[in-house]
Design a protein that fits this description.
The complex is a heterodimer of chains A (152) and B (70). Chain A has 6 helices and no strands. Chain A has 152 residues and is an all-alpha fold. Chain A folds into 2 domains: 58 residues; 84 residues, no CATH class. Chain A is flat, with a radius of gyration of 20 Å. Chain B is globular, with a radius of gyration of 12 Å. Chain B has 70 residues and is mainly α. Chain B has a two-stranded antiparallel ribbon. Chain B has 6 helices and 2 strands. The chains are: A mainly alpha (152), B mainly alpha (70). The interface between A and B is medium-sized, with 17 and 19 residues.
Chain lengths: 152, 70
């Protein structure tokens, strides 16, 4: 510990946390802008923005997480494990459903309706990516929210 | 786990935010510990004890149910 307990540090953990969060958000905006530029204007210019911004997002979010207090970190651990894992169950559920019905199940139709896809292989691939990402993120958010509602 | 955080804080006329500031945690964390909804880690328990100038045992104690089970 750098300071004795009860002694206020010059810059508190909370202040550092806010600073790192702002850094993460700014780097994320730059990353998204870079991706938009790469897709529409120039790939080299876009990548020159995206790649350093990705490193910055990772670095700032790492520092932000380290600056959280233990209860806030616990909320994210639980949300990641329980919420993310529960959301991840949607993908195997869809696979089983598709296997049992030859791809004609209501669940598969629902996923195609929300994420696009149809018979186009490229869109179907993106649909699969979305199915693997979106439900865990939703599960993460719900679990995180419920964690805090129970603790406060 | 039970704790005397609220009493000790009141004796010193500290708000939850004051204590949170001294512990370098959020006010929500202090509230969760105080109401028994969250048991702090050992390092944080030591920090709490140091802030109040007491030992951990003088602040935290096992639940009656947990004690009965031992």
């Amino acid at each position: 510990m750098s300071t004795r307990a009860g002694q206020r540090p010059a810059v508190s953990k909370q202040q550092r946390k806010n600073l790192y969060l702002i850094g993460t958000l700014v780097a994320t905006v730059i990353m998204v802008a870079g991706a938009a530029i790469a897709g529409r204007v120039s790939v080299p210019v876009g990548l020159a923005l995206v790649l350093p911004a990705m490193v910055a997002v990772f670095a700032f979010s790492f520092l932000w997480f380290a600056a959280l207090d233990e209860l806030a970190q616990r909320a994210h651990y639980e949300a990641w494990f329980w919420g993310g894992s529960t959301g991840l169950l949607v993908a195997p559920l869809l696979i089983v459903s598709a296997l049992l019905t030859g791809g004609q199940s209501d669940l598969v139709e629902l996923a195609l309706t929300y994420f696009g896809g149809g018979d186009n292989a490229r869109e179907a691939f993106l649909n699969g990516v979305m199915v693997a990402i979106v439900p865990p993120v939703i599960g993460y958010g719900i679990w995180w929210l419920v964690f805090w509602l129970r603790k406060l | 786990m039970k704790n005397r955080l609220k009493v000790l804080r009141a004796e010193r006329n500290w708000s939850q935010a004051d204590l949170a500031d001294r512990l370098d945690v959020s006010r929500q964390s202090v509230n969760a510990i105080e109401t028994g909804k969250y048991d702090p880690s050992l390092p944080l328990a030591f920090k709490i004890a140091a802030v109040f100038g007491l030992s951990i045992e003088q602040i935290f104690s096992a639940d009656e149910a947990a004690q009965a089970a031992e």
